[in-house]
Write the structure tokens for this entry.
Amino acid sequence: MSESFENKARAALHELHDQASRAGELGRLVELLDSASRRAADSAASSTDEVTAEFAGRFGMIGKSPEMERLFDLLERVSASNVPVLIHGETGTGKELVAKAIHNASPRCANPFLAENCAAIAASLLESELFGHVRGAFTDASRDRDGTFVAANGGTVFLDEIGDMPLAMQAKILRVVQDGELRPVGSNKTRKVDVRLVAASHRDLAGMVKTGAFRQDLLYRLNVITLEIPALRERSGDVRLLTDFYLRKLAKEDGTTLRTLSGEALDALQGYKWPGNVRELENELRRATALTAGPEIALSDLSPDLTA
């Protein structure tokens, strides 16, 4: 072997060693950054949980108005049973929070709680999503897949916006409620499931029955117990409580100074009708916090709809 070749080989080995060292240092740096990111996320989640615990009333929900106290009283009686529950309320009132509260206070709390929004899933995919499918049931079905009901066996399934479910699918849901049986897409065998069904809608399901858009027999099965969630405009005093909660939560999440509200801004929030309910209030406060340079949110920092 020539001296020139040996020198080149030795130089190449040194270069590889240097590259490996740099790669190792880079890998360690990535690990440190990942670790720091996880710690920051855990810290933010912990801080948010602390704020929630500080403001939460019964069932971990924010609200101390008489209207919410009546809802909490009903939840205490409903949660221990196993009957289906129908939740009715406007968009943004927190229907899924109520469904989770029912599950968490029930004997099924150690088992899964799974939620599906019937309005967000294409009608052609909804049956497979809820009931699962077998391999070869359709073009992309490369393997068997359990649906929501099987995955939640022993627990609770929450079907949000069930009023948007197609009539053909309603008949299959009725069978699950009545007999505890379902058939995966493409299968000729039924499966037994043990789930508690909680459904919700902002629609007038009784009115939909009259027009033929919703099955009467399914409605009878679902509304054994109906919970009406009050709109935010009906919850006297809760706008102030929710505002304080979200301002604290946002300050914790963003690591920023806690914002306060001017008297005019607070009056505007309390006088507004909130068609989007609690969700709209949270979004409004997020917007105002982002736009406010100082420690106080003024009336001019709010959306035009609130200041009109």
